[in-house]
Design brief:
about 180 residues; alpha/beta; seven-stranded mixed beta sheet; 5 helices; globular
């Protein structure tokens, strides 16, 4: 099984905000799989499903971005999952709007959700799927920017370009992981 975590903040006021791009993609994957995420398991909305032929456990931590590590730690401990079978989707200020970048391991890059996951799990070698949200003109506007809602144009680009690319990259990661797990 593979754990796919989308980062964001719970609550209606955060829906469709840049910081919730991880939640948005998890919702797309759940919808494609025909499942609904349930609440209050591991402090997260979760669903286990088969997506693109892979056994995945979808997760949306409900402890706000800065406390994402609590849910992730509980899930990894419960399922006894290797850190490399963890994929985390989140927003990235350092990439242009809609760009998608994946990598295995690394630091937090200033992202508080990733910082908390690293601190709580002690893991570093998990996969990251970063979706660019661009930067505001002035650094002092960063909080308002990440908590700001996507425009209709931005939403359209996410739907047509970014989300399909991110899902394709996640499938590539799952394929690599499955091959690696078969060899071990």
């Amino acid at each position: 099984m593979f754990i796919i975590v989308g980062l964001g903040n719970p609550g209606n006021q955060y829906e469709n905000t840049r910081h919730n791009i991880g939640f948005m993609l998890i919702d797309k994957i759940a919808s494609e799989s025909g499942v609904f995420l349930s609440q209050n398991r591991f402090g997260a909305q979760t669903a286990r499903t088969t997506w693109e032929g892979y056994d995945v456990f979808l997760v949306k931590p409900q402890g706000y971005m800065n406390l994402s590590g609590d849910s992730v730690q509980q899930i990894l401990n419960f399922f006894k999952i290797s850190e490399q079978n963890l994929i985390v989707i989140f927003d990235d200020l350092d990439q242009s709007q809609g760009a998608v970048k994946t990598r295995l391991g690394g630091g937090h890059g200033g992202h508080n959700g990733i910082r908390d996951i690293l601190a709580k799990t002690g893991f570093e070698k998990f996969y990251r799927v970063k979706i660019g949200i661009g930067k505001p003109e002035h650094k002092s506007s960063t909080a308002n920017w990440v908590l700001g809602k996507f425009t209709s144009q931005e939403n359209e680009y996410l739907e047509k370009e970014s989300f399909p690319l991110a899902k394709s990259r996640i499938v590539d990661i799952l394929r690599q992981l499955k091959k690696k797990n078969i060899k071990n």
